[in-house]
Amino acid sequence: MISFRTSSGAVLPLRLAAAVAVLAAAGSIGTAAADEPAPVEGKTLVVMGDSFAANPPCDGVLVKCDGNNDVAAHECLHRDTSWPVQLSALMGVAGTSDFENATCTNASIDSGPVTSSGQQVPGRDGYTLAQLAIKAAKSGAFGPRTQVVAIQLGANDEWPHDSATTADAPAQLTCAFNVSQGCDAVAVSQGRWPDLDTVNGPAYADRIRKVVDYVKYYAPNAKIELVGYPELAPANSTAWCLDVLGVFRYVQPRATAINEFWNRLDDAERDAAQALSIDFVDARTPTAGHGLCSPDPWLLSVLDPKVNLVGLPFHPTPRGDTAVAAEVHSRITQTH
Known about the structure:
single chain; about 325 residues; alpha/beta; 5-stranded parallel beta sheet; two-stranded antiparallel ribbon; about 10% strand; disordered N terminus
């Protein structure tokens, strides 16, 4: 976790103090240390998100996802076919300083490594949305020139807030590969899967509200796009699949809880966007029919030699990322 702190007794200028207070209230980030920043024009495109956005060139087995042991990278590796990079090309800012890619594996809205009761949660050590916003702000990302701020988060968070139960990638694999118990309603009652009723629009909106308000204030001309996740399974599916080496398919027929989580998260993001007067980008529609159990998945298998041998399982293939990038771009052009 990163922490930004003032020197003892320092008095922050009014503008910076206001910004710090907003972001500090949005997550466990401490207090930002900096002098009053000079006014910035901002960058055209800013993206904040988790591994579905970063889609790093790693798999945790053949290639580690820790920035090649570079602490400063903090798991913020990006594949050049990820949807934010493809979107930057569609917007004409690819490879320039006018694109801020603040997407990092294991990022969450506001889920830290320790609950308020002091319970340690292994693996939950990624950036929060507030930390990603500070990271981007320190690079001069937010200003009057900023046109688009896109956010894709929520899959790594605990539900309800401040519990130790999360639906992140390791938990999803553990639940899906539980052959004896499955991953349906019993997984929720046994505490192996988040309480699905807590994944809703009001809760999601409350958790991102302060950062959204911060962006609206410092990038007043930007369109804020809350980007949904691609289709992992059709809405009414009870099964969950994962291909291995592009030839073997594992099927968990009792996966109602997993699939319902993604349904609830999609609905929560849509409702939260409406409540906060920002845009929601539906990533399910352009990826429909290409979920994990489909004949033509746009999601990676384990060590997939036909697409990317090195890549995070059940994260988008380049074709899936292309579809999401095109949908975000279409939404941007419709709303500008």
